[in-house]
Automatic annotation (TrEMBL):
The keyword Iron does not apply. Pfam families: AAA_31 (PF13614). The gene is soj_3. Dimerizes in the presence of ATP but not ADP; ATP-binding is required for double-stranded (ds)DNA-binding. Interacts with DnaA. It catalyses: ATP + H2O = ADP + phosphate + H(+). Keywords: Hydrolase. This is Sporulation initiation inhibitor protein Soj.
Amino acid sequence: MTKCKVIALANQKGGTAKTTTTLHLGIGLAHQGRKVLLVDADPQGDLTTALGWINADSLPITLETQMKKILQDEPFVHNEGILHHEEGVDIIPTNIELSGMEISLVNAMSREQTLKLYLADLKKDYDYILIDCMPSLGMLTINALAAADSVIVPVQAHYLPLKGMTQLMKTIGKVQRQLNPNLKIDGVLLTLADMRTKLARTTEDSLRENYGKHIRIFKTVIPVAITAAESSAAGQSIYEYDKNGTVAKAYAEFTREVIQCGEKQRNKHESSFSR
Ligand SMILES: Nc1ncnc2c1ncn2[C@@H]1O[C@H](COP(=O)(O)OP(=O)(O)OP(=O)(O)O)[C@@H](O)[C@H]1O
């Protein structure tokens, strides 16, 4: 049994801090001694850029080139093209070329499993693989859900996400039934929260009340702060850019919650095996 946990960060709504959360959960896990690979599965390439690779278009090997080799059944070295960031995480970068993959996947034999096939051989090198999904429920997101052990859903705290959540949960359910029966939902993370506003507090209460019985809403809420936006423009994590700020503290706390959640799942799994 592999010890690696693959987590997809997904929400088809744009701008819910999927990329920011992937990056800070990843570096947070690295701070806790875990080996982490980040997968930039969003053709916008924001994760790649936020880690400082601003000329991603000139990178010879990206997620797209590796997935293409799988589609064409060509041999390739799995860890080729993986970049190492000075804050302790690895990344398979992406550029806009990945947008063509949505179409290429449609007629492919392994159309839902291509990302899973790519990650299979990398799992032995990492404790966590985090996939930053694009804001859609297209083939790339389906690939991420098929490859993942669990999903984390970042949701904007001031936005009542009922409609979007229902759609996402339906897709996750379908993936569980048809492609990946072991896929779990780790939980919903409230992001971009301005807790001084009544709307953010009401949304949080309503989410906890309506969904909390069925799905974990992480205790940590990520506050909104201009330093978070500034840090990604500076190509640094918030842990470097503003290490004593509220966002850095919240992401460190969230990282601890994710580790605990993984340990609980692992213990449950092991005790069911030892019975
Ligand atoms: N805690 C925060 N406070 C302030 N700004 C933030 C915070 N978190 C993220 N942002 C900013 O909000 C914007 C959207 O964040 P991000 O790119 O992480 O969202 P996303 O869900 O990945 O977006 P997309 O759906 O386009 O992929 C970015 O400009 C980012 O810098």
